[in-house]
């Protein structure tokens, strides 16, 4: 009785349910010596093998010698004829194939089993054999594999085919020779064998496009038994269509369309899914696929309903009209017993529905919000966010909904993670605030309420930062102070520090709040945390100065330097002590990740390379600093994006990156030689500059073998006598010494000859001299720079018709950072003001205010302010 | 070993099992010999070079043999030693027509005899001077001379000429091993 009770208790605690818990590796390996005993006890050995497998799968590290010893002991189990034990041995061989040495010892034993009479062994033996075989050993078992592929037993044939797929990775050449056997297996009656055979055939021909299209056309003509094979063919056909970008009248598309009338639901769904996801489909082509999905929506099988509604949900934004046709069926699914289906149905309706139905749907969804998992809640949140962008007027309802989601989550089970979900909500709220000025106040209020009870430091600091930025500019900033100060009293040190910074921003921006903020900040002077104390002291002192320029520089607008660059600069400064003070302007500026994210929202494809670009300049700076010729140029100011100077399929591919220094520009040419029978040596790019520019030096690439990119540099001095002429065009010629070489060995001939290759021109524009800088508070910076060097001019932009185009053109031309989200033009306005901020070469701040008005053409009044006269001149001159 | 096993063996229904390891250079005919010793219906028609090892079973009049048929190729020979420990007898196959590599076989034999697991045990070694049908093949006596078998003092050994393809000479060797193992048990 006592034991029973203890068992029960253990069960509740979650212990001892697993008989393999607390296995010791050494004792298990010790036990494995039992394998050497005769006669063999199959039951005991099976149990030990299970333990070994368990250990391996728990990630226990088994050293090579230990593993080899156990492996060889295990090989002795081949003398037992026990079926279960033998199959355990196969499993263990597969698991230990990479751990032990000389695993090929079991090759003959496995080939014997795979060709033997015992069907229970054959398929498993093939799989184990292929696992231990490397490309050098494959020759010796090739004959058996070929036989096995065409074996009459479907499980053997399937095992051989799937193993071939795995072997393809290591020794594709050998597997290619099995194409005839695979083709024979493809006409098998067994559905799995047929599917696997077509898979193997496809992978054999994968690199040969003609071969693949022949394969598809062959199998689309004959009717296959296997629905899986059909699905595979549909996928291959879709891929081919995508690559060839053929029209919809191709036989491949016809094939996919006929699959919509297949008798298997699996095939029908696959075909519909393929058609719906194709780019540029017309409504007529979509219609049959959508109607199939519509039919699935009312299927009695939950899987089909789920698949259909999920597919519709995915493409709802792409083909709203087509998906809207299914609205009636989706409405029925809202009350589906399966919550996942219901959620997807509602969010799809939200995406396609009209403004009037939003309220009703939101009410519906709120009834079961608490019943669905976080993953689907995030789907809902994202749907609401896109809805907000679509119907800005509905922001009230939607934001209330988001806020109540946050609240419910907080009150119910706040301890249980849900971080991703909360972050999704907070992201959406912040996104809505940024896109829609009307929603700002309501949104900030919701966020304030949220941080009152928020256990995620990351979210709290993020919201506090946002409050600090947006709060002071609302009509009644004082109401946020209470929320922020509560954080100073109640939270952990990271949040307290963020709250102190936010408070300081209120003080700096709103004069009437200054005295109270000073009082609040002074209370933090005795905080227990260093960071909080330091921040409070710093801000307090700055605020007490009452100097607007200081406020703007140190509180409202943060540092704009690259953190990596700053670290390197400070490090070298401390290494070589000098009398002069550390110069902030010598630190490279941060490239603007924030701006890039905004463009990335429009084109998701551009997102990945942009992320790299954030640290790109630091990498370039390091590379350039390593070249002795460029030692005296000072810090790197800006690196441009790469420009192609050749077509992508020519003999030599060259792209250019412009690196701007204080008084020089270094052109970096990344060259690739695409001819495999040539080696280029001493490669330089000869530049013919426009007047005023002077080519100082060339750094050649010593050798450029086939396919390996090499870098050559050209250094150009900017005109000294006339600092305002900074724009120019350079014509370029690639010069090099060609040596012919053997394409196979790469051995070059002794003799070479000089040759050259004309490249496209490179232009140096104004944007190469300006680094983007985000000024969170443009007005403060505008006053800070002052009127000393101000240029003003008015232009009529006759070529552009709308404000959006004008803004886009100006931003592209200047290469400066739009501030205060002024790059977004509100709809139905006839006038707009664009604020641009940047730093001119040499570290001078430049600010541009462009007032735009539309009437017939666009008229622009542009005002340039800078801390340096030349910079202001250059920029205002560049506009014309 | 349960009571029924003992009873069965006593009644001659179930034979005692012994483990044997079969070694020798590559292409000396190990797998062919083992194949020929198996019952008629279990024999394979074509023999390919062994990679690693295979386990085979056959029976003599009173014993049931489990043979570890090892691969003879150079790079696998160092794997033999993993199987010495529980071997109760060794079958060493020599290609009696391959005079050139007789020294290699001798070398391998010496290594085998000097192995820790073999050195201490008094286990019978059976030599098959295989391929006796070949024209240039040496007699069993000549082979034993070239292999230096007289030097083996502490273990019983026996050499017999054989032809694995016809099966000639094989039963004689198996009989000798059977006798040796039975006498050792007594």
Q: How would the global form of chain A be characterised?
A: globular
Briefly note the CATH topology name of one domain in chain A: Leucine-rich Repeat Variant
Which spans of chain B of ≥5 residues are poorly predicted at pLDDT below 50?
none
Give the terminus-to-terminus CA distance of chain B. 18 Å
Membrane topology (chain A): Peripheral membrane protein
Protein name (chain A): Coatomer subunit gamma
Organism (chain A): Branchiostoma belcheri
Keywords (chain A): Cytoplasm, Cytoplasmic vesicle, ER-Golgi transport, Golgi apparatus, Membrane, Protein transport, Repeat, Transport
What do these coordinates show?
The complex is a heterodimer of chains A (880) and B (186). Chain A is an alpha+beta fold and 880 residues long. In chain A, the strands form 3 sheets. In chain A, strands 1, 2, 3, 4, 6 and 8 form a 6-stranded antiparallel sheet that branches. In chain A, strands 12, 13, 14, 15, 16 and 17 form a 6-stranded antiparallel sheet that branches. In chain A, helix 2 runs antiparallel to helix 3, helix 13 crosses helix 14 and helix 29 packs antiparallel against helix 32. Chain B has 186 residues and is α/β, with parallel strands linked by helices. Chain B is built from 6 helices and 6 strands. Chain B has a 6-stranded mixed sheet with strand order 2-3-1-4-5-6, sandwiched between helices. Classes of the chains: A alpha+beta (880), B alpha/beta (186). At the A-B interface, helix 6 of A face strand 2 of B.
